[in-house]
Amino acid sequence: MIEKLKQIAVNAAKGSYAPYSKCCVGAALLCKNGEVFSGCNIENASFSLTNCAERTAFFKAISSGQKDFSEILIVTLKDGEILENSFAPCGACRQVMREFCSDDFKIHVLSKNSLKTFTLGELLPQSFSPENF
Ligand code: THU
To answer: What does pTM read for this prediction?
Structure first.
């Protein structure tokens, strides 16, 4: 499954709209039912309205009726090459993940020579979440 997620994320990064940073981020979000949603970053001249690859994948999945997720794989490409240190999810993406996922949700970051795996709990400890309501 990891190999499939790698392939989908790299392919998604190629669809990214990143004229400002030139960093093309791709994500592959695996649902508990086996379905995979891809996402890419979509930049904006205002910068602040940029949407990250992870949130694109989540919003596609949620708007398609999926709400149960098991893992996500993320990769960053520059000039068509996978970065030595691909981006880990930004704070906004971590918080969006926490809306739909628990602390054991797995986040894989694919870099040129490594695949690092974290849990959401590790990347967003002591989180504010729907359980607070
Ligand atoms: N980016 C993502 O797509 N995901 C992240 O979690 C980190 C940052 C994108 C946003 C922007 O298009 C580019 O990477 C540089 O910040």
So the answer is: 0.97
